[in-house]
Amino acid sequence: MIVLRLINESFIFALQAIRVNKIRTLLSLLGITIGIFSVISVFTVFDSMERSIKSSIDSLGDNVLFIQKWPWSMGGSYPWWKYIKRPEPQLKEMEEIQRKSNTVEATTFMIGVNRVVKYESSSIEDAMILGVSHDYNKVMKFDLQEGRYFTPIESKSGKSVVIIGAEIADQLFENIDPIGRRLKIFGRKMEIIGITIREGENIFGDSNDDQLIIPINFARTIIDLKSTDNNIIVKAKPNVSNDEMRDELTGILRSLHKLKPSKEDDFAINETDIITKGFEGLFGVIAVVGWIIGGFSLLVGGFGIANIMFVSVKERTSQIGIQKSLGAKNYFILLQFLFEAIFLSLFGGMIGLLIILILVFIVNIQGMPLDLVLTQGNIILGLSVSGFIGLISGFIPAFNASKLNPVEAMRSTF
Asked: How far apart are CA 226 and CA 319, in angstroms?
């Protein structure tokens, strides 16, 4: 009961400090408000970015590996001259992987080229055309809003069929059902058999909505696959780790390429994990910068809280003396002022969080690509930091108050 009484009285005193000396108190709390705003706003933006980036990366699958000519890199030096002479992955290598691998559940071969796409008098310049083998929909995230996927016969024979993105459908077929209609790619007429579900842009500004997907066996009749950036994408079987699959694939590919044990790999096996780790390192650096920027404001705010509490102790010296003469223990006085300092600091922190919440709401209603979210974790962090600053800043004034001599305190006429 004593603790509840202490908390209640301290809360009332904190409210009185704000009500009686509004300008002085609010100015003193401004440092806490700015500090919490600086730190938590940085965390809010980058938590939102991290969530969006991970969502975009997860759409590629966390049990998927990409066999390519070029290794992925997230900063640092990149010895491109070591990789430029490497061969591009070939369809026959994918077929060998399918035949020899015990860890791979599904594989697909994929190329990407930009071409003009036409339908009657409408056209789209530099549209992204993906040529894929049949199991593309088993390896990559793939959903149709209308129509169907390629049949095995269409994929194998290289039939002139195409699946278009939602944005392509909107641009070329306004108010018309595209399914069954024919558009021109590579100067050839191709029948539309499906439309992918609308996804919108990811954090990197990319979108599957403006892509067209065709069978690789049709694409290879028009495009020289040796002149394109080729990808073999493999998906692991359930309960098979990426490391296990990588080791097996390395052995298969080295055998196919007839590499001696002393020779380096002439292929890259890439994983989305490298992108995630790269961004985690970047966010870690930015978080430190956010703490440094906000730390100066929090330091100023801490001095402001300490100043308020020293004045409060001075103004209530005689009251402290009366409390002590009536039997109040030192720890009671100490905790009373300590809780008051914590509450004042929390008020400053809550104002900072409220400003962030308002800005998050304003940004989100503007329809920005990045959805900002003030998470529960960041709210707790903001309030915890505020309370800690109040605890540190209020300790010395509270300790001085607890050590006052009751007789001398009652004689005070401040």
From this structure: 88
Contact call for residues 183 and 192 (beta carbons, < 8 A): yes
pLDDT of amino acid 3: 63
329 band by pLDDT with thresholds 50, 70 and 90: confident
> Cβ–Cβ contacts within 10 Å for residue 301, how many?
28
Bridging pattern class, strands 188-196 and 211-215: unpaired
- 3-state SS class at 105: strand
Residue 329, amino acid: K
Contacts of 70 (CB under 8 A, 6+ apart): 83, 86, 229, 268
Is the whole-model pTM more than 0.85? no
The four Cα atoms 145, 148, 152, 157 give a dihedral, to 10 degrees, of -110
Strands 182-185 and 211-215, sheet pairing: unpaired
Does position 374 have pLDDT exceeding 90, yes or no? no
Contact 370, 205 (CB under 8 A): no
* Six token digits for residue 184: 């021109």
Asked if residue 179 lies in contact with residue 193, where contact means CB atoms within 8 angstroms, the answer is: yes
Phi, psi dihedrals of residue 140, rounded to the nearest 5°: -105, 155
Q: Which pLDDT does position 59 carry in this prediction?
A: 62
